[in-house]
Protein 1
Amino acid sequence: MITPEDQAAIRLTLELATVTTLLLLVFGTPIAWWLARTRSRWKRPVAAVVALPIVLPPTVIGFYLLLLMGPYGPVGRLTEELGLGHLPFTFAGLVVASVFYSLPFMVQPLQTAFESVGDRPLEVAATLRAAPLDAFFTVAVPLAAPGFLTASILTFAHTVGEFGVVLMIGGNISGVTRVVSVQIYDHVEAMEYASAHWLAGGMVLFSFGILLLLTLFHPDRSRS
């Protein structure tokens, strides 16, 4: 049975995933565009940094973010001086951690989409006297629309499924930082398996729906 605490965790998780996805659309798009277009020697190092959350254990990421945003870390001292307090164990801290942890799930699909656009459409736009920014929004973005959709879906789903990072940064505060994955963990620890089944089963169905949705937007072209 879904309890009021379960409902609060679900609402918080959806809010976190939505905010993270929107922020990464803003910050991840220029990174993906730069990676797709640049010939700089810094491209590979930057791409490696973006991909780090894929290979690093979530607890490692959470640990270093905790040090950075804690009272003795540079970010923590900065937020304290700005009167914002400390980010760990707050919803804002969860957002920061989720943005970093889900970064490759936004940037990599967008980079692939921008690379598939190629140079020709942008060259044509330039011959029509379109400014680079205008060509980006009127040519590149529409042509890369499937990539934006894929990146947004993957980012949202990945944020919903976070556990290690959010537990390290947010702890386990009901209604503040306790997301669905942590709530499932709490149910299992308390041997409340029926409640855990409700939430875990919902996560399984959600994950299956996301994968099915992606296949619908990217059908198998080998049969065409």
Protein 2
Amino acid sequence: MTTQSGDITVLLDAARGGDRMAMDHVLSTLYQELHVMARRQLAGQQQGHTLDATALVHEAYLKLTNRGAGNAQFDDRAHFFAYAASAMRSVIVDYARQRLAQKRGGDLHRVTELPDDLEGGVNLDEDLLGLDAALSRLTAVDPRLTQVVEMRYFAGLSELEIAGLLQRSERSVRRDWQKARMFLLASLQETVSP
């Protein structure tokens, strides 16, 4: 289900003006797409985890509606999905931290490889926390690259989908993805080296 970009932009404009009903309508309209993103992220993670796709969407929804002390400030559909990906990242990382804190001897180790695609979603473990730290370092260098990674890993979008949302060429998104991946790999390997 894909919603017309113009319809969402009109609703986002109203939400930006403080219309809470418009924001609720945006979220309900895009709920199915958010749920698909969440299911992709948590594929294969359901056993032994209390975080499911519905819970992830609902937690991300709370973050989306509480953004800016309750005032939605999304410029367009791309901005909405970029923020939704970031909100999902935040929820997943918080969940992984909580799980590790409950484990005995939950010492963190750092990942040393980064798959080109997270077809089965992200692992809700130490690897995710290492990736989150590397993404924070990447954000300090180039926030646009972080946005591409979040949309790819945490929203499960393809390069073509990201290109459409960001109104950029697929080739440009692919280059950004490659640059971000190289930075993240170097950052992850750096944390492993003594």
Protein 3
Amino acid sequence: MSKSKGRKSARRLTPRQLDILTRIRDFQRNQGYSPTMQELADTLGITKVTVFEHVETLIEKGLLRRAPHKARSLEVTQIAEFPDERSTVFRLAGRIAAGHPVEGIEDAETLDLEALFAGRRRRFVLEVQGESMIDEQIRDGDYVVVEACNNVRNGDTVVAILPGGDATLKQYYREGGRVRLQPANPDFKPIVVNEHEVEVQGVVRGVIRRY
């Protein structure tokens, strides 16, 4: 089976199948050998028959291998992919105070950037050029995560298309029949246009910065 085909199969896993696959992976990492069907059943609180049926499905999808007549022969294949191993998932090592120092606490949580910025509407990313929004902690070279929509509230930071076709990142304020696109930097002047002359493409939902 090709790796691309295996990835498509992995995306169609049920929550239970993914749970079993993940538990096999974790068991192997922690113990150095594979769990038995009975151990999986006991851990999951389901019958051994149910575990066997899911394991057979995972084998058919190419995500597991099993040697016949051996109790601990389950092996996760290289094409298996796990949500907690995506490149957008980072280990959350703890929390750090930006004010008064606190005791460092380490835990096993993760931060999934894909899930953090997920939403029902389409989202896209733009690289920021310029310093007009620095007082909103949006700097030149940052990336803004934008939710595509045109229904905005006063004070939202938006991506707006001006009458000449230029795009700008500003705070949106509707004032009568006009719109004020307010920068967050005193060195820049607000842009004021008629409401029907500006097109809002989306609202900023997050900022990503690299150092």
